[in-house]
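# step 3/5: fold
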Amino acid sequence: SSGINAEWPLRPGLSGEISSSLVKGVGTLLLALPQSLISTHGDTLYPVILNNLTPDTCDTASLKLVQYLISNTPGIIIMHLDSLVAQLCELGASREVSVRCRVEAVNTLKLCTTQLHHKHTHVQREFVIKRLKTVLGDRKRVVRQVGAETLQQWVMLQPS
């Protein structure tokens, strides 16, 4: 037995609701674990992390963990790339999310262009470019700045 099952992040008595605080804590702890362990169980962990990437529950620890997974276990991310890109675009453009989360979401989109093979990211190119134009209108300069850098990376993507 691997020691981790699909029920591990659930709090007893909450009918399957995932605690965002629990995901944040686990995400922070996972960054200290050996890459081999995360690689082995990343496919089980990723859906839990993705559920935490909503405007209501977003935190920078979850985004940092996604960045780690993109850099170190791209195979896991590629299987869920469509949903991840959509979530990151939503977070980057949402005024309901803190500035730090918007910046990290957009930085995570930028990381996709450098760490994942272009044949996977190019499919998302037009969608991301369209959504990033919304980020360029953000009222916070730091978000606009990161949005412009990320937009440049996605515009430069060429099919492989």
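# step 4/5: annotate
Residues 7 and 14 are 12 Å apart (CA to CA).
# step 5/5: archive (pending)
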